[in-house]
Structure to design on (76 residues):
């Protein structure tokens, strides 16, 4: 999306057709920040959430709750 915005010389918020001015501003600023960070000599490596690790972590958290609910479940 950022690349398309640069190619067409329009704001990223226009590509996504964001009508709310504040939301459009926030998206445009976030895209500008990303471009600024990536253009540095030693850019930071993005810290993407590993979806598999994230899901596994939260499944473990919920297992206790699910077990408790199954144990204390009463038929209606």
């Amino acid at each position: 999306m950022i690349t398309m915005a640069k190619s067409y010389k329009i704001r990223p918020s226009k590509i996504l057709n964001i009508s709310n001015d504040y939301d459009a501003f926030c998206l445009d600023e976030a895209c500008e920040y990303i471009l600024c960070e990536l253009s540095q000599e030693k850019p930071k490596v993005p810290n993407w959430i590993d979806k598999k690790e994230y899901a596994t972590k939260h499944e473990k958290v919920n297992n206790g709750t699910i077990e408790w609910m199954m144990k204390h479940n009463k038929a209606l």
